[in-house]
Amino acid sequence: MRWAWPFKARVGDDRDGEENGSSTGDARPDFLCIGAQKGGTSWLYQHLAGHPDFWMPPLKELHYFNELSRIPPVGSARARNYRDHSFLESIKRLSARSYIDLEDYARLFAPKGSLLSGDITPAYSMLNDEIIERIVSHFPNLKVIFLARDPVERAWSQLSMGVRLRNIRPFDATNIDEVIRNLLHPGVLLRSHPSKIVARWKRYVHPDLFRTYFFDDLQRNPAELRRSILLFLDADPNKPSGRLKADHNSDAAREKLRLTAKVRSRIAQFFEQELKACAAELGGPAREWPARYGFSLLSFFVGLADNFDLLFWCDWFA
Asked: β-strand 210-214 against 118-120: which pairing, if any?
């Protein structure tokens, strides 16, 4: 029998707590943010790191569950005090192992004391079912956040970042064949189907513990999005995140590849079925995504209805 930790808010006035890193709270993460990459995760990390109800790891992305035996780059990580230094040494030792140790992973978060903390790693959106099930089984009260973004916009932003960081070889952004070739790269393609990502995680996470938020809301009303996320995490939305304004997003001004109307239309065709699936399954702002590219949802729902009728007919005569 596995006992669940009780729900309770973890708020405090002292962000640094005991300088020796001792903990009065549970050594475990309170939440995971599983992406999406280019969906606003940097914005979220900055606002939580500056909020007095949180102690966030000095690394934004831990990559523990998706990059075993690879020590994360800690040289440029924030290290303001003993707790941060201790965390960085612990994650280096833990990540060097070739297997997942959930107990020691939980101990990474001991420095939070009575505050809230979590792991924001967009690559977790690509974890397989076995690892997801192990995580959720070990942390039954773990909250999970997914920041969804229009697949067309998200993929283009990822390609732009990849070229900028030299993770993707520069290509002719006006050449449709070259664009599609890069979209088919597994590192891009697997991240570009939010309906499948959400469905996979929801198979294991209790509905009360899973929330999908939207990049659209970050663009339209970041203050309300911030408030909604903080309330979900049991934090006080009325406390400021340091000097950050709600609309502060350091990635927003990053240079992107020029997207022509012709290429945009072709990428939309590439993601047509996913755009419609997101509208049907994620709801919220995703309902607007197909119409941006001139797609109708009518044929999609007719197809769903036909499939339902066929399955019903097969069951009836089985």
From this structure: unpaired
Using the structure block, give the residue that is written with the tokens 């283009």: 156
| Burial category of 126 from C-beta neighbours within 10 Å (exposed 0-12, middle 13-18, buried 19 and up) | middle
Report the 10 Å Cβ neighbour count for 75. Answer: 7
How far CA 69 is from CA of 92, 118, 266, in Å, comes to 10, 21, 39
| 88: Cβ contacts below 8 Å, ≥ 6 apart | 58, 59, 74, 77, 79
Instruction: Tell me the three state secondary structure of residue 31.
Output: strand
- Using one digit for the tens of pLDDT, what is the confidence trace for 229-265? 999 999 999 999 998 888 777 666 678 899 999 999 9
> End-to-end alpha-carbon separation of the chain, Å?
39
Residue 130 contacts by C-beta under 8 Å, 6 or more apart in sequence? none
Q: In whole angstroms, what is the distance from residue 232 CA to residue 210 CA?
A: 9
Closest by alpha carbon to 134, among 192, 64, 197?
64
* Cα 111 to Cα 55: distance, rounded to the nearest angstrom: 8
Q: Two tokens at 53? A: 């109800």
pTM (2 d.p.): 0.85
Distance of alpha carbon 232 from alpha carbon 78, whole angstroms: 26
